[in-house]
Structures are given as C-alpha cells and as structure tokens.
Design goal:
CATH architecture of one domain: 3-Layer(aba) Sandwich
Distance between the termini: 56 Å
Number of helices: 20
CATH superfamily of one domain: Cobalamin-binding domain
CATH class of one domain: Alpha Beta
Radius of gyration: 24 Å
Strand content: 5-15%
Structural class: alpha/beta
CATH topology of one domain: Rossmann fold
Length: 624
C-alpha cells in the first residue's frame, strides 16, 4: 500500500483531472495536523458521503475538536470520493486517505464512521474497500484498525453488524474517550484484536455484534438476540451526557463551497413533545439545555475562529428552550450591525415563534419554516401533534404581515390509518395559507410545501406499524401535485422507492448485511442521491437473499414480537412505547412531558449516568 509521500505525489497528477479537486487536498483553516512520530494513538473520522456534505456535519465537528484536544491522540478526517475521483483512485491503486496528512486509513488504530441515516450504508462499504481493508469484521486480523460507528442509524445496528467491529450507542462526547483509552491500553499491552473487542464490550454503551447470536422463528421474525457469554450484557443501554459540554468553536472552514458554510450551535438536546413518529425525539431524551452564556460565548468565539456570518441555533424544538426569549434578545443586541444570518429552526406553530424571529430582524432573513405534519384533527391526534388549523393560519398571517414573503410547510403522508380525505386536507390547508398571504402582501406571497413519506422507525411508538404501499403513496402524491399547481406555490416530495429502502434498512435484522454487500458489489452507492439510487439493485439483492422487502416494510408487527433492535436500549421503556401506540390507535393525545411526567423510564434507566443534575441543563420531571 502507498505511504503518505507516495499518495501526495500521485494526487498532484490526479487532482487536475477531477471535478472539485478542493474536496481532496485538505489544508483548510482550523484543520489540525499533529506529529505522527510523537503521538501513538491515531484515529480517523469518516463521513460516508462527499466532502461537501460531510464537512458541516455537527457530529463530526464535535468529535474532531474533542479528540484533538487530547495530547495523546491524533485525529484526522476522510470523506467518500465522488465517482470520478473514486475511478481515478482505483486506477492508480490510491487508498482512501485522510486530508490532514494524506495517511492511508489502514495506518490508523481506529476508524470511526458516523451513520446519521441508513442510505449511507453502501458508502461505508465503499470506504472500507477503498481503504484496502476487509469488508467484514470477521475477516480482519490484528494488523487492521478497529472500525467503530455511531449516530442515529446505529440505534438499530443489526443491518451493518457484519462490517462494524463495535457500535457506540447514544451520545459520543464521553464515550469516545472511553473507547480511545481502551484501545490505547490494549495497544500498550499488545492485546489481540479479540481481547481488545472484549474490553470494548465492557464499556457502557458499546455493542460488539460478534459477541451476540441471533436466532429466527420459522416465519422469519427474530426469536432472540443473546450474548455469547454471561460476561456481556443482555441489553446495551445508550450513553448519555448528563450536562452538555461547551459546543465546538473551531469549525473547519472549507476551501470550496459546501452545503452549509455556517456556525452550528446546539442550544438544546432532546424533546418533550412526544410526536409518535419521531425517532430523534425519542432516542435523544432526556432534554438538556445549554445556558444562554454558553451559547453566546460559543457564537462569539466561533465567529473569531471562522469568519462565518451565518449562525444556526439547532434543536428539535427551539421554541421549547426555556430561555429562548432571553437568548434571542441577547443575540440580537450583542450582534446587532454584524450583518449576520441567524436561523432558528424547528419552531412551534404559534405567533410566539414569529415574535422570536421578529427580534432577529436586525439580521438578514430568509423564509419561515413550520412543520404541521398533518392537516386533520384525527391525524394530528394519532401522531400526537395536536395543532389546530386556525393556529397555523394565524401564525401564517403574522409571518406574512411582518415582512416574510415565503413560508415553507412540512407535511408527512403515509401515516398509519391515513385516508385520502386526510391528504386532501393538506392541499386545502396549503391553499388557505397562500390565500391569507395574498390578502396581506399580494402576489409576493409564496408557499413551499415539502411532503415526505412516513417511515416507521425503531424505538418509537410506531415501530410496530406497517409502511404504506407504493401505489397508495403515489396516489396521495398525485392528488397533492394536482391540487397545488397554483402560482406562488411549490411542492417537493420523496421518491416512494427510496422510502422502501429506508424502511427496509431501518427496520431490518442482521440478515440484511448480506443484502447490503450484494447491492454494493453490483454497483449500489450514494443511495441518498436521487440520480445515483438504483432500486432494482436492492430488489435483486433482497430476492437473492430470500428476503423480499415486504418482510420489513408492509408487515404490521405484533406487540409481543421480538424486534431486531430490542437488545439496544434508548432508556425509554417498552411499556411506555406500547402505551403510546395503543393511545394512537384510540386517537388519544399525550401531554407534553414538561407539564406532566409520563414515566417514560428515561431517568430510572440511566440513573448511573445521570447522577449530576443542574437546573439550567435539565428539563425533565423524572429528573427533578
């Protein structure tokens, strides 16, 4: 395999021949280069998509800054090359390398993948193969790096279990240090790969699939997932950070344009709303907040370190941040006249949210985004998002009257028990919104409707439900396309075949490892890209394995059934999820757990991790 010097020489000849060579040579502002000869522990972070998408990823930014603060560890980055660069790399026997030092991934002690969504799985295999490493964990030996993975998709790790040595379940800020300390000591003691993995499995929140056996029933459902030794836990409980640390402030400033050139500050983690379809809202409990001082200091420091003029204040429900008015007032006063773009996504549908954005009118503004998700009382009660139509219309009036010309509404079709009348109501509501806008600002008013398709996700109250069929989804999409062909209105929608793949991978068991590998070997990659997604490759791979997608998508699962991810615990009790599912079937809503504790089980489950509590950081009645 080529060394760092040889890789650099070959890159000089290759880069002028590919699109956007700036993706591949590093040297960005705020990148960290350490001395390989002086540091014994080396980790590569890999985002399994192109540079343009991976650089702004907040999870990578957090870990990159966190790990490089360790004097004993070197951390570098790699991204998956686009098609032209991959072809050039394979023709020239150029392995996947890190941007900081052009080091081949095979030279690192640890390779860490982030898995924010399932359609990146084949890219992970492509990266491992480009690195010159065996695809499967079972085929690696003591000379190979330990490959770990984390992220939201890791809450059902089974489909990727054949390729990943160890998964980090949950939040990584503290867990990554435990992992690195373990591998450092294993390296010092010259432990074998197996011994190292056994030590990793002993770390709370770490899951090594090789130490768990899966059995199946005659009908193909999972019978059990059991550890191979009593030394290993029956359930892997997610890692959670009790008090959020200071956010990263040394963001990589890329040499080329990427999807988000901005400072991202997470103001709050978790959500108390309890939307029954929302995977992120369930797996990120309990709610923890950063202080206004922490957030403002992070913005100021990041601006000094990057020169960025766009700030994104991130959370699942920004209006629920308990100090939101103070935060917005402080930001608007402190940074007045700085010509910043400040976005406050995930606002509740209420005039209060419009008032918050009004306070930021001293900065440049774009459109205003709201997510009603459904348009009838029946569907809103079912998904536990009880927002009245008049509430949305009044919010829209306030938005248009205060200087915004554009509103974006997010809806979801394919919810359990949805009818065409429920879908028609989406079109009717959109027409009412644009009508209100035209009353106020005339033809300047515009409305963008984004329509996604519901995917029943693991660890949510809807994990037992079935996916809507392609014919049904197409009928619903066609109804909306026909109804929303009006000047000033735009509609975007998801490909139902992509939804089938997402549902299959997110709800699957470890038999899908063979399917993923087969699809990749026949050309599947960049499955999240519309122009690269090849549905037929996946259908062929599923049929070749005797696993038609219907097994994972269109089958409603029994409450008593063992699910492929039951050995992974988010901290929320199964009893709570069952109760919420039954309430959905009955059309009953559940209160915001800020107002009434619903005993979801999060704090009792995570007691050992949550010993320290702080009134500023915690918004959880169970934690009180």
């Amino acid at each position: 395999m080529l060394n760092r010097i040889e890789i650099k020489k070959k890159l000089k000849a290759i880069l002028p021949t590919v699109v956007k060579p700036g993706r591949y040579f590093g040297g960005e502002f705020n990148h960290v280069v350490k001395n390989w000869d002086e540091i014994g522990l080396r980790m590569a972070l890999v985002f399994p998509d192109i540079y343009d998408i991976g650089v702004p990823n907040l999870g990578i930014s957090i870990l990159y800054e966190t790990i490089n603060k360790r004097p004993d560890t070197l951390c570098e980055r790699a991204y998956v090359p686009w098609l032209d660069m991959e072809e050039a790399m394979r023709e020239n026997s150029l392995p996947l390398y890190t941007l900081e030092s052009c080091a081949p991934l095979a030279e690192f002690d640890v390779i860490g993948f982030t898995l924010p969504y399932e359609t990146l799985y084949t890219n992970v295999l492509n990266a491992i193969d480009l690195a010159g490493l065996p695809l499967r964990s079972a085929d690696r030996n003591d000379s190979h790096p330990i490959i770990i993975a984390g992220g939201h998709a890791a809450f059902n790790p089974e489909p990727m279990s054949a390729f990943i040595d160890a998964f980090v379940i949950g939040e990584g800020e503290e867990a990554i240090h435990d992992v690195l300390d373990c591998i450092k000591s294993a390296k010092t003691e010259n432990l074998s790969r197996l011994q190292t993995l056994e030590r990793l499995q002993a770390i709370p929140g770490i899951y090594v699939p090789a130490f768990y056996d899966v059995t199946y029933n005659e009908n193909g459902s999972v019978q059990s997932v059991e550890p191979t030794s009593p030394r290993f836990p029956k359930k892997i409980v997610k890692r959670v950070v009790g008090i959020l640390p200071d956010p990263p402030t040394h963001f990589i400033v890329p040499s080329i344009d990427v999807v988000h050139n901005r400072i991202a500050v997470e103001i709050m983690r978790g959500c108390t709303r309890g939307c029954r379809f929302c995977h992120a809202g369930m797996v990120n409990r309990p709610v923890r907040e950063r202080s206004v001082e922490q957030i403002v200091n992070a913005i100021e420091e990041s601006m000094k370190n990057t020169g960025y003029e766009e700030i994104a204040l991130l959370s699942l429900s920004s209006s629920d941040y308990t100090q939101i008015e103070e935060l917005v007032s402080t930001i608007s006063e402190k940074f007045a006249g700085r010509n910043l773009v400040i976005s406050l996504p995930s606002l509740r549908i209420e005039t209060f949210a419009v008032g918050l954005m009004e306070k930021l009118k001293g900065v440049r503004q774009g459109g205003f985004t709201l997510a009603p998700e459904a348009a009838t009382d029946r569907m809103r009660n079912l998904i536990n998002k009880p927002i009245q139509a008049e509430q949305l219309l009044e919010t829209a009036r306030q938005i248009y009257s205060r200087g915004w010309n554009s509103i974006k509404l997010y809806f979801m079709i394919g919810h359990p028990f949805e009818t065409m009348e429920d879908v028609q109501a989406i079109a009717d509501l959109c027409k009412q919104v644009i009508k209100e806008g035209r009353k106020i600002i005339g033809n300047k008013a515009s409305l963008h409707t984004g329509v996604s398709t519901f995917v029943p996700k693991s660890h949510t109250p809807f994990q037992w439900t079935a996916l809507d069929s392609i014919p049904n989804v197409l009928d619903k999409q066609n109804l909306l396309k026909d109804q929303l062909r009006t000047p000033g209105m735009k509609m975007t929608w998801s490909n139902p075949r992509e939804t089938i793949l997402e549902a299959t991978l997110s709800r699957g068991d470890r038999r899908l490892s063979n399917v993923i590998e087969d699809a990749w070997r026949h050309g599947a990659k960049f499955d999240a890209w519309m122009d690269q997604f090849n549905y037929n490759l996946w259908i062929d791979a599923l049929e070749g394995a005797g696993l038609p997608p219907e097994i994972y998508t269109s089958r409603e699962r029994e409450i008593s059934e063992v699910l492929p991810w039951d050995h992974i615990s988010t901290g929320i009790s199964r009893k709570y999820l069952e109760r919420e599912y039954k309430k959905a079937l009955a059309g009953e809503t559940t209160e915001d757990c800020r107002d009434q504790c619903l005993a979801c089980g999060i704090v009792p489950t995570l007691t050992d991790q949550l010993k320290e509590k702080d009134g500023v950081n915690w918004v959880c009645l169970e934690a009180a």
